[in-house]
C-alpha cells in the first residue's frame, strides 16, 4: 500500500513526550519540537493490525519472548546482513538504554573507564557514570564537513597514562554508536576493522549500539560490527531494535545479540537484577515490523532522503551562516551554528526563545558538540519547512543579513 508521509498527524493530547512535553522541556508552549528521536509518521499498517489483534485478548500480563519473534529476528538479520545468528545469542530487553546500563555494569567496575566517540548520544555518559565508571572520549574529527575517526588518538586512550608513575588506562569497554548519533556517520568496513583491532588488542569489549541500523541512505551500507570477523563476534554486544526504524520507541523493546556464551551469561546475570520483561505489545510490534514492515520502510527511506535534500538545499541557500553535516544514516541532522559566535548557552537560548524551535543542544553530546544542535527531520515536510523558516528568520535578525 501507499503511505502518506506528508500527512500531519496531531500528536498533542496523546501524552507525547515530544509534543505534549514542550512547555515543560522548553518553558514555552510556542516552541516547535524537532528534537527527541521519534517520528511524526503513522506506523506500518501490519504493525497496527498485530497490536490490535493482541489487544483483543484483553489480558496483558508478564510476557515471555515467543519463538516466532526469535525466528523473525534471525531471519531478518540473515536477510539484511547475511549474519547467521543462533537463537541462544538473543537477549530481549525493554529498550537499548537499559541494556547499555546493564552492559556497563557487567564489564566496568567502579573506577574503570569506558570509551566513547564524542559528540555522541548523551545517555552513554549516564550509563557509564551512574555505574561508577569514568567516561573516556576519542573525539571524532570534523574534516571538510565530514566526521572522521582519529585512530591514533583512539589507540592512545587505551594506553597507560604517562607520568612519574604511569597508571593503567583501565578502559574495559567501548560503546560505539553506528550509525552514529548525532553526526550521522555510517562507518565503513575498513573503519570498523581498525576500531575492532584496537579494542581487541587492549582486551576491551565492544558494546555496539546499532539501533539506527536500518535508517541508512543511498551510497552507504550498515555493517554490523560482529559480522566483520569471528574474533569481533566473540568480543561484542550488539544492540538493535525496531524502535527507531519503525517508530515504536514508546513500546520499549530491543534485542541484544551476544554470541559469546561467557559474556552473555554475565550480561544476563546483571540484567536479572536491573531489568523487567519486555513490553507485551512491543514484542508483538517488533515481530510484525520485522516480518511485514519493509514496504513501509522503503517508502519511509525515500521520503527521509527527500527531506535531507530539502534541508540541505534550504540551509545552503537561505541560512549560509549555518552548516549541515549531511547524514549517511539516522533521521537526525547535526547543525553547525558556530559562525554565529554564540556560546553553548546563548545558542540554546537563541534557538528556544528567538527561533522558537526545540532542538537538542549540541553541548549535551559532549564538549565537542558546543556550537552545534541536533534536528530531527523525520516529520512531514511542511513541519520541517516551518522549523527551518523560524531558524532562518532568527538568524537574519541577529546577523542583520536579509
Low-confidence stretches: none
Strand content: 5-15%
Can you summarize the main beta sheet?
Answer: 7 strands, mixed
Across the major sheet, the strand order is 2-10-9-8-7-3-4
Structural class: alpha/beta
Share in helix: 25-40%
Q: List the helices and strands in order.
A: HEHHEHEHEEEHEHEHEHEHHHEEHEEEH
Task: Walk me through this protein's architecture.
The longest helix has 25 residues. The protein contains 14 helices and 15 strands. The termini are far apart. The protein has a seven-stranded mixed beta sheet, with helices on both faces. It has a four-stranded antiparallel beta sheet with strand order 11-12-15-14. The chain has a two-stranded parallel ribbon with strand order 1-13. Helix 2 packs antiparallel against helix 11, helix 4 packs parallel to helix 5 and helix 4 crosses helix 10. With 402 residues, it is α/β, with parallel strands linked by helices.
Q: What labels describe this entry?
A:
14 helices, single chain, globular, alpha/beta, 15% strand, 40% helix
Amino acid at each position: 500500500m501507499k503511505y502518506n508521509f506528508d500527512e500531519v498527524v496531531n500528536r498533542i493530547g496523546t501524552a507525547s513526550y515530544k509534543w505534549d512535553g514542550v512547555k515543560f522541556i522548553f518553558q514555552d508552549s510556542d516552541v516547535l519540537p524537532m528534537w527527541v528521536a521519534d517520528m511524526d509518521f503513522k506506523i506500518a499498517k501490519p504493525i497496527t493490525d498485530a497490536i490490535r489483534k493482541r489487544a483483543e485478548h484483553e489480558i496483558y500480563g508478564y510476557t515471555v519472548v515467543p519463538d516466532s519473534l526469535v525466528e523473525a529476528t534471525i531471519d531478518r538479520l540473515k536477510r539484511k546482513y547475511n549474519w547467521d545468528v543462533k537463537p541462544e545469542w538473543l537477549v530481549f530487553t525493554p529498550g537499548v538504554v537499559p541494556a547499555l546500563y546493564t552492559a556497563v555494569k557487567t564489564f566496568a567496575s567502579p573506577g574503570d573507564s569506558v570509551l566513547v566517540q564524542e559528540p555522541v548520544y548523551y545517555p552513554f555518559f549516564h550509563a557509564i557514570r551512574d555505574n561508577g565508571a569514568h567516561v573516556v572520549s576519542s573525539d571524532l574529527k570534523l574534516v571538510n564537513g565530514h566526521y572522521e575517526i582519529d585512530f591514533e588518538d583512539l589507540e592512545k586512550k587505551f594506553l597507560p597514562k604517562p607520568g612519574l608513575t604511569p597508571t593503567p588506562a583501565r578502559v574495559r569497554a567501548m560503546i560505539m554508536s553506528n550509525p552514529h548519533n548525532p553526526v550521522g556517520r555510517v562507518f565503513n568496513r575498513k573503519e570498523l576493522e581498525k576500531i575492532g583491532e584496537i579494542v581487541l588488542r587492549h582486551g576491551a569489549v565492544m558494546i555496539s549500539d546499532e539501533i539506527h541500523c536500518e535508517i541508512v541512505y543511498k551510497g552507504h551500507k550498515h555493517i554490523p560490527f560482529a559480522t566483520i570477523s569471528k574474533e569481533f563476534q566473540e568480543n561484542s554486544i550488539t544492540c538493535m531494535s525496531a524502535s527507531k526504524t519503525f517508530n515504536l520507541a514508546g513500546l520499549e523493546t530491543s534485542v541484544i545479540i551476544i554470541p559469546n556464551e561467557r559474556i552473555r551469561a554475565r550480561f544476563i546475570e546483571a540484567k536479572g537484577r536491573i531489568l523487567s520483561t519486555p513490553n507485551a505489545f512491543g514484542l508483538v510490534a517488533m515481530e510484525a515490523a520485522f516480518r511485514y514492515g519493509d514496504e513501509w520502510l522503503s517508502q519511509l527511506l525515500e521520503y527521509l532522503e527527500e527531506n535531507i535534500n530539502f534541508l540541505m538545499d534550504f540551509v545552503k541557500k537561505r541560512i549560509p551562516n549555518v552548516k549541515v553535516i549531511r547524514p549517511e544514516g539516522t533521521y537526525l541532522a547535526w547543525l553547525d551554528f558556530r559562525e554565529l559566535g554564540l556560546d553553548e548557552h546563548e545558542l540554546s537560548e537563541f534557538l528556544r526563545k528567538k527561533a522558537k524551535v526545540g532542538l537538542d543542544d549540541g553541548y549535551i553530546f559532549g564538549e565537542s558538540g558546543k556550537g552545534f544542535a541536533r534536528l530531527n527531520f523525520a516529520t512531514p515536510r511542511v513541519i520541517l519547512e516551518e522549523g527551518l523558516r523560524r531558524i532562518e528568520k532568527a538568524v537574519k535578525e541577529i546577523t542583520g543579513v536579509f
